[in-house]
Write a structure and sequence with these properties.
Elements (H helix, E strand, L loop, with lengths): L2 E4 L4 E4 L3 E2 L12 H13 L4 E3 L8 H10 L7 E6 L1 E4 L2 E7 L3 H15 L4 E6 L8 H13 L3 E7 L3 H10 L4 E5 L11 H8 L2 E5 L31 H21 L3 H12 L3 E3 L6 H8 L8 H10 L12 H5 L4
Parallel strand pairs: 3-4, 4-5, 5-8, 8-9, 9-10, 10-11, 11-12
Antiparallel strand pairs: 1-2, 6-7
This protein binds NADP nicotinamide-adenine-dinucleotide phosphate.
The site of NADP nicotinamide-adenine-dinucleotide phosphate (NAP) has 29 residues, from helix 9.
Length: 329
């Protein structure tokens, strides 16, 4: 697995990372033993970039990841996030907090749960509309000065916020959804990252599992699965999107790879500063995804994919109405 510079601040990461969110919440059943084995196997396969957040679980995902990486912590890049506030008595409710005192206390919490001396990459999960980005990033930069964090990043912000933040303190990475069916970053964000030397971390590169071709009907998702709240997985949208995935799956078959590998290879083919972090809690899927490091797409194949799955072909927004409001701030 290729190891590359992640942004311009001296941090490195494997070309493909591992998203750990689903090991604790959102995507059906959990199995801690298999999840820990998956993280260890990822390390064996050369994956050195692991992604979590304080709000996954909430809190339990950081503990799980901290436990799994203990014996090889020094060899990897660990990224976590803060800023989305959960209410244990109302699991569906979400707040956002980017105030300086919250930045500081959140970091202390993550350090303890991960059981590490420093966080390699610390992201603001969503911009707080009531706190100027300069204040949040100012507090995050203080953590770098104190040695508690090595690099900082943002998630799902617009170009203006990205530039303001980067002028306050150099950002290592921006993490935003990007895949065949989530192409918004092509409208200026990728270009800005390239210009500023900021790595782009593509989350949900498999379209939350939809682009793998394994989710055939809405009922395949278990009760409480977060994806049931996403308009893309609902009603007519589901069927229209499945038709697109079926087209892409035929191209994968022709190429001799799986639809998941094709979806990941497509993300990786866009720009060298893009790091996909596919999520899985299963060794089988992890191994399949990691093999994508050896698959490249020709210009002809990229055109073929674009033809069957053009930029704005997807039906439905990626989050519920409330979730959409916290994006692109
Ligand atoms: N910044 C943000 O706001 C944000 C938002 C969402 C996610 N993230 C981060 O990004 C990471 C990745 O995104 P994601 O997990 O949402 O979506 P994803 O990587 O697009 O898809 C994950 C889903 O695909 C399934 N899957 C993975 N590999 C597969 C394969 N080879 N064949 C069939 N199915 C496969 C997984 O199944 P299993 O669950 O059964 O393994 C899981 O349900 C997360 O883990 C999280 O760390 C960040």
């Amino acid at each position: 697995m290729k190891i590359k510079a992640l942004g311009s601040q001296g941090i490195q990461a494997s070309a493909i990372g591992l998203g750990c969110m689903g090991m604790s919440e959102f995507y059906g059943e959990q199995n801690e033993t298999e999840s820990i084995r998956t993280i260890v196997r990822a390390h064996d396969l050369g994956v050195s970039f692991f992604d979590t957040a304080d709000m996954y679980g909430p809190y339990t995902n950081e503990i799980l990841v901290g436990k799994a990486i203990r014996s090889f912590r020094k060899e990897i890049t660990i990224a976590t996030k803060f800023g989305i506030v959960r209410d244990p008595s109302n699991p569906k409710a979400r707040g956002v907090n980017g105030r300086p005192e919250y930045v500081k206390s959140s970091c202390e919490g993550s350090l303890k749960r991960l059981n590490v001396e420093a966080i390699d990459l610390y992201y603001l999960h969503r911009k707080d509309p009531d706190t100027p980005i300069e204040e949040t990033v100012g507090a995050m930069s203080q953590l770098v000065k104190e040695g508690k964090v090595r690099g900082i990043g943002l998630s799902e912000v617009n170009v203006e916020t990205l530039r303001k933040a980067h002028a306050t303190f150099p950002l290592t990475a921006l993490q935003t959804e990007y895949s065949l069916w989530s192409r918004d970053p092509e409208d200026g964000i990728l270009e800005a990252c390239k210009e500023l030397g900021i790595a782009f971390v593509a989350y949900s590169p498999l379209g939350r599992g939809f682009l793998t071709g394994q989710i055939k009907k809405f009922e395949d998702l278990s009760t409480g699965d977060f994806r049931k709240t996403s308009p893309r997985f609902q009603g007519e949208n589901f069927d229209k999107n499945l038709a697109l995935v079926n087209e892409v799956s035929s191209i994968a078959k022709e190429k001799g790879c799986t639809p998941s590998q094709l979806a990941l290879a497509w993300v990786m083919a866009q720009e060298d500063f893009i790091f996909p972090i596919p999520g899985t809690k299963r060794i089988k899927y992890l191994e399949e995804n990691v093999q994508t490091a050896d698959i490249s797409l020709s210009a002809r194949e990229l055109v073929q994919i674009e033809k069957v799955f053009p930029k704005n072909a997807v039906s439905g927004s990626r989050y519920s109405e409330a979730g959409m409001k916290s994006l692109n701030q």
